[in-house]
Amino acid sequence: MLDFIIRRVIAIVPVLTVVAVFIFLMLRLTPGDPAAVIAGDNATSDQIDDIRRKLGLDEPIWTQFAIWITDILQGKFGESFFFKKTVAELIAQRIEPTLALATCTLIFAVCVSVPIGVLAAYKQGSMFDRAVMAFAVLGFSVPGFVIGYCLIYVFAIELGWLPVQGYTRIGVDFWKFLERMVLPSLTLSVGFVALISRITRASVLEVLNEDYIRTARAKGLSNRVVLMKHALRNAAVPILTVIGIGIAVLMGGAVVTESVFGLPGLGRLTVEAVLSRDFPTIQTVILMFSVVYVVINLIIDISYTIFDPRIRY
Amino acid sequence: MSGDAQKPVLEVRDLTVDLPSGADRPHAVEKVSFTVNPGEIVCLVGESGSGKSVIAFTVMGLLAKALKPTAGQILLQGEDVLQASEARLRELRCTRMSMIFQEPMTALNPVMTCGEQIDEVLATHTQLDASARRAKILAILERVKLPEPERIYASYPHQLSGGQRQRIMIAMALVLDPVLLIADEPTTALDVTTQAEILKLIAELQGTQGTGVLFITHDFGVVAEIAHRVAVLRWGQLVEFGTTEQILSRPQEGYTKMLISSVPSIHPRHREERREGKTVLRTSKLGKTYSSSAFFQATRVVKAAVDVDIDIRAGETLGIVGESGSGKSTVARCIARLIDPTEGKIYLGDTEIAAMPPRQLRPHRRRVQIVFQDPYRSMNPRMTVGDTIIEGPMNFGLGREEALKRARILMETVRLDPNSLDRYPHQFSGGQRQRICIARALAMEPDLLIADEAVSALDVSVQKQVLELLDEIRQRLNLAVLFITHDLRVAAQICDFVAVMSKGRVVEYGPATQVFENPQDDYTKALFAAAPGRHWEFGSFAA
Known about the structure:
The structure holds 2 protein chains of 2 kinds.
Chain A: H1 2-29, H2 34-39, H3 45-55, H4 61-73, H5 87-122, H6 127-141, H7 144-158, H8 174-208, H9 211-218, H10 223-261, H11 266-275, H12 279-307
Helix pairs in contact in A: 1-12, 5-6, 5-8, 5-10, 6-8, 7-8, 7-10, 8-10, 9-10, 10-11, 10-12, 11-12
Chain B: E1 10-18, E2 27-36, E3 41-45, H1 52-60, E4 68-76, E5 79-80, H2 86-92, E6 97-100, H3 104-107, H4 114-125, H5 130-143, H6 149-153, H7 162-174, E7 180-184, H8 192-209, E8 212-217, H9 220-226, E9 229-234, E10 237-243, H10 244-249, H11 254-262, E11 279-294, E12 297-308, E13 311-313, E14 317-321, H12 328-335, E15 343-348, E16 351-352, H13 358-365, E17 368-371, H14 385-395, H15 400-413, H16 430-443, E18 448-452, H17 460-477, E19 480-485, H18 488-494, E20 497-502, E21 505-511, H19 512-517, H20 522-530
Parallel strand pairs in B: 3-8, 3-9, 6-7, 7-8, 14-19, 14-20, 17-18, 18-19
Antiparallel strand pairs in B: 1-2, 1-4, 4-5, 9-10, 11-12, 11-13, 11-15, 15-16, 20-21
């Protein structure tokens, strides 16, 4: 087990190397000059060259890469071109809303989708099952911002139950924080609920055909025990896998949701950084996302062993 | 068996179970009546589709939703379970009636320890506290003769062998001393030596507790071994019901006679020893070692086959018999080069093919053909049987018309209608599909035909026909046949020579008559001693 974790942690290195090279090249090779963006519309070409020199963008591309990698290895993420702050400071400022949004979404989505998936499988072919499946199709196909604006219209504008936009830090006022988290998490979790409930249903359905479910019924156990104790735990591995993949999708979804609800999080930071060609910020945020993704998948892989004793690393 | 004076524990009266509309017949089970007395083992025997499992599941109330019992009564100690509510049925399960299943590999929940799974029964049906339950579980584990009950209690199913898992199932079924035990083919998936132990265990436990047993099987060897009374089923109807002696020695009905006559004898048929054909296949020190290695881990090595020396001449059948994991299929697959051997040589005629690179091997592929175990899965369901048969020859350059002409002749050879070449596999029965697989193999005009458990999935009457067909084809085409089987009776009937394999090695090798009548190796002796019903000579009856 420890071997496995060590090996997996070591495996992060090549993954990050590939991501680093790729993102670095993508940014340099696509058109758009950060110096021109910073200088503004009326700048002369001398001014732009000047800025470019200051940012170190006049060096050959591999020298720039070497400097960046050396800095990263020393824990220096550089200074944002655009925000006039270090990237580390920027991320520290912006990480809380995103973390809060992702956590709330995840908790909400799992708590809702797993039970309805199990129930849909148990009542296969019933009205409930069909409703869940219809919702799943809808949840996949309606874009996040549409759901977001619909929810804002109904709950914030018409009913006035919840605020339209904005963010309150968790340390400042917990209830206000929670109030402002409801609609964004709901919005972001719709696709997630659709995905997990579908997989839960499929995976439980498959397990319900297994011989040991018949054995459990032959023991005289009630349907509830058969379903929750015998079926669900055996169906857990595919569900966990999809939650892991979902977290990656979640990061993408956060960009849109944060924009709709005006949350000052990492998603919006990424969009702003991309628009202003803020190389250091983009590079660091994306590297961070990849670390998070690899680590979450490692955690998911380890959690398999809790649910299925046959899986040993 | 006595018990005439006692009330039966199970009384099935005129039971009818309907199939959903659109099935090939209206009833899965039709007007079936029989009884099981305390301390008695009643065998339900029949081929696939006879309704024997449906009866078992109806008794337990575990029938699939599509099937509906529509008439009759099932009295468990006088109480009609067909009228019982779902809650009442749950109460009865495991306390008064229990069931064990065919596949011990899949019948236990893989994510719970064996102890927990038995504990669930006690927690559901009794008021015992945790320590009393644990004591009771350890006691029953001891009773089913599992070594180190404490360790087994904490083990997960995948950590135990098939036989041990079936013992866990038996322990779970009998922990509350039910009056009725239903055993649905409980030893079919087990090796013959394990099967013998499990049969003995069931007979012992039910004898001491006076449990009535409803034992479902398709194997007459097993019937001869343990049954007191036998019910023969066909297409959902009871054909004959009587004592084991009556049914096996003096069957009255044509169908029963046919079934019993189809059971292959364990005594080899006398076959003239020829040894004059030219050698088609010879292996020398053939071996296959699997090794897996990983970072930070010691390399694991599994020797699937070691130093296998066999040879087959044209017109001869060599049988390889052995239990699961003995390496018999590994040897067959190496010879066909479906997997690459790691040691030794394989001579196909005069050509050594063990290490031949794929490109050079291609022309030799034609010369070895395999018929696999499961005719339901070894044909592409989306290709017509005609296309399946001609695919190989066309691949080797034969024109379509010519190949089809040959396919028609082959269909006649395997006694199927040549006009059905444009049909799909699902339109044929299991036995017919296996004939098609044989035709497909023969279409390549091989020198060596490998039959890898080719009749194991077939019902006994169909099995007999396919065996006869194989033997006839071997004679007519002067074919060399390598016959892989775990079934000693089948091997006795079809093989000229037999190689007995255990743990990857050939432990005994010689003419079939010699190996069967006068085994030398200890393992061979143990294997033969475990064959169910070996003392019973199944007669031939004119139907």
